[in-house]
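hiii so um. not sure if this is the right channel but i have a protein structure encoded as tokens and i wanna go backwards to a sequence. like what aa goes where. can anyone help
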């Protein structure tokens, strides 16, 4: 085999053991490489990647403390440190199924098991270099999201290089889907499956069904795929999407658990499990997953102060509805997570503010002068460096004042924080939702159900019955615009039937004035103004 051009290529070997790096470097030099650099950890490897352009990276999976090889690959792709022509090979002695599947989800160019010989490395090297040379134009088009070019080049590779036909076919289907050519993609996939079963092709067909809103059919088909190949990880993701679209939330959580049991290192999927478990009011499982996310993110690009704060907040939510034994466990975990947060972000203004708010919440006693003084100080300090605030801190600060029943202060915080995050609409939505319902998620869900039942009765002209349900919902969620306005509107319609009732009018005025915090751009503001005017006329 001809390796004559290897002397012009640069290689980076990453392993936390110096003797292993030396052994691999010797093999590479014997093969004809002249430039082989070494790194013993993620930070030094990243520094080298920033300084030079490498053609080949051989990276051990386990790099000791800090980022492992998978996280390094993920980070370099995000930072665009890996050139399209670069080859990244993950090397490991790990054979556990969950490690192997997790590693393959990050899609390195290859996965090389330790120990290996010079002969094995030479054979694989030839394959790597040939594959990259043939697929490089395709990879460049993919990076540029030039889907017509991806489709054209994929067909060329499919016709001219049978060895890489499978990769070319997958990219061709992706190009068709991205161009919304779903019928063409379906026909192509049916053609492949007519010759022989291919798991990825069958999964792609069900992905197209999802795009066509055929959720039940996609669900059934994806379950069949996973019976045949339980390691087809993308099929789990599509199946969860199909189930959630059908409001099958508990079953969606089950399949997320199944996927995570096979590939536990996928942070995105773990975060999805957090949200699914919360939706199912399974707070303990949600927090277990949140802790896994926090640990997986440590020393990676996923680590953030906001993750610590979200975890602590979610533990607090669980503590409101669990037994005393679990409450004690939660308090210990909150203390531990808070200490980790402060240790990692000691100089961060957000960490200090959050921690102070946490201490204030623990001593929530409006009759205690020290508590009132601490709350006043926190209110003032919240605006001292408002431009430095992150969303998680802002929401937690507002929550602290609503919990203390300082509603005017909470509303003022939401007003100022909305200005601070005016270019982040999702944050503004969260703050507005908190302002409308500063109550636990479980209570919010109960109020929502009562409100939905009330709306159904109202539409059937059963106004007095709807009023009773809206009134119960207001008891649970006393500041929610939709519930309050539904309650008032139902009374107004009922009075058209029964005649004016000054007691009812006064009660409705008192109730609707709870919404004086609504801003003019709130989606319920016009309705609020109209109903208020109608009441005042009466």
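sure thing!! here u go:
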């Amino acid at each position: 085999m001809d390796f004559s051009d290897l002397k012009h290529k640069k290689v980076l070997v990453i392993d936390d053991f110096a003797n292993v790096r030396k052994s691999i470097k010797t093999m590479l030099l014997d093969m004809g490489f002249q430039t082989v650099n070494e790194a013993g950890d993620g930070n030094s490897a990243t520094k080298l990647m920033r300084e030079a352009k490498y053609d080949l990276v051989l990276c051990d999976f386990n790099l000791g403390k800090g980022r492992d090889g998978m996280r390094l690959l993920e980070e370099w792709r995000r930072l665009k440190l890996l050139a399209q022509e670069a080859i990244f090979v993950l090397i490991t002695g790990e054979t556990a199924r969950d490690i192997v599947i997790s590693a393959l989800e990050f899609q390195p160019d290859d996965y090389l098991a330790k120990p290996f010989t010079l002969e094995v490395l030479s054979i694989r090297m030839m394959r790597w270099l040939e594959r990259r040379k043939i697929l490089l134009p395709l990879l460049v088009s993919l990076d540029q999201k030039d889907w017509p070019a991806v489709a054209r080049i994929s067909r060329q590779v499919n016709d001219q290089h049978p060895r890489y036909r499978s990769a070319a076919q997958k990219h061709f289907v992706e190009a068709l889907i991205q161009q919304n050519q779903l019928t063409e993609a379906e026909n192509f996939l049916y053609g492949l499956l007519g010759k022989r079963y291919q798991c990825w092709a069958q999964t792609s067909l069900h992905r197209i069904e999802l795009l066509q809103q055929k959720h039940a059919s996609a669900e059934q088909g994806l379950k069949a795929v996973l019976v045949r190949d339980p390691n087809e990880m993308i099929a789990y993701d599509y199946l969860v999407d199909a189930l959630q679209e059908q409001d099958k939330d508990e079953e969606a959580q089950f399949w997320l658990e199944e996927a995570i049991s096979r590939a536990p290192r996928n942070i995105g999927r773990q975060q999805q499990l957090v949200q699914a478990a919360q939706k199912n009011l399974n707070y303990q499982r949600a927090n277990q997953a949140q802790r896994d996310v926090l640990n997986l993110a440590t020393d990676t690009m996923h680590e953030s102060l906001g993750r610590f704060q979200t975890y602590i907040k979610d533990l607090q939510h669980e503590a409101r509805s669990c037994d005393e034994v679990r409450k004690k466990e939660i308090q210990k975990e909150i203390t531990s997570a808070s200490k980790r947060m402060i240790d990692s972000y000691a100089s961060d203004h957000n960490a200090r503010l959050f921690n102070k708010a946490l201490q204030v919440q623990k001593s929530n006693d409006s009759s205690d002068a020290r508590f009132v003084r601490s709350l006043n100080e926190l209110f003032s300090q919240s605006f001292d460096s408002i431009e430095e605030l992150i969303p998680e801190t802002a929401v937690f600060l507002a929550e602290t004042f609503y919990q203390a029943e300082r509603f005017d202060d909470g509303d003022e915080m939401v007003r100022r924080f909305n200005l601070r995050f005016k270019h982040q609409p999702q944050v503004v939505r969260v703050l507005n939702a908190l302002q409308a319902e500063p109550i636990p998620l479980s209570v919010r869900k109960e109020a929502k159900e009562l409100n939905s039942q009330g709306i159904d009765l109202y539409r059937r002209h059963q106004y007095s019955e709807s009023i009773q349900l809206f009134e119960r919902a207001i008891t649970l969620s006393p500041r929610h615009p939709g519930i309050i306005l539904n309650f008032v509107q139902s009374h107004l319609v009922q009075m058209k039937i029964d005649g004016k009732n000054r007691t009812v009018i006064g009660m409705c005025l008192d109730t609707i004035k709870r919404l004086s915090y609504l801003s003019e751009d709130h989606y319920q503001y016009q309705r609020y103004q109209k109903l208020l005017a109608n009441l005042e006329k009466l």
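oh and The radius of gyration is 29 Å.
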